[in-house]
Amino acid sequence: MTEAALRDDLARLCKSLFDxxxxxxxxxxxxxxxxxxxxxxPTNSCLGFLDPARISRLDRDGNHVGGDKPSKEVFLHRAxxxxxxxxxxxxxxxxxxxxxxxxxxxxxxxxxIPPLTPYVVMRVGRVPLVPYFRPGDARGGELIRAxxxxxxxxxxxxxxPIVSGKDxxxxxxxxxxxxxxxxxxxxxxxxxxxxxxxxxxxxxxAAFG
Length: 209
Ligand code: 13P
Fold this sequence. Notes:
L-fuculose-1-phosphate Aldolase
């Protein structure tokens, strides 16, 4: 895909997330890997109204080389790209239910989104909680790097989800799946749940990676 087509795709998918309430105001940021760097949504931009030509461009080392000033969360995105060589895109949202789980004191920090349905296992995998840090704090990148690329997605405590995928569409779909599963978990709270068991999870991993 050409860079121009990727810019259009980024704006189209971000608008779709915004239109369906997965992000509000200027919350959230999305990036995609290029051969020689990255595209990332500009800081304080609304995902619903991006101008493809003004999307920020970074070189391989993360230097800002084009478009508007990049998202302050660029550290988080780069930590995923550096530790997960197959990651082609990263989506960070403040989507309501995943963020709710990131605020609950009894969310299991090793496994925030237990295997309730097959698709969350297939698209997202096990999701750990990363301790709270201020938005835009470069230490957030270090906390994600310390996970050594073992997880496609994490929840940032009291903040929201960040999800990687092999390409933009996959990362967006995974972020949506994570949010919808979080919604089920919050909706079903207090009720007796039947999770998928270990052999069902293993079967999904073997079939879908
Ligand atoms: P930016 O506007 O800098 O991308 O930050 C938004 C956000 O979601 C912070 O976590």
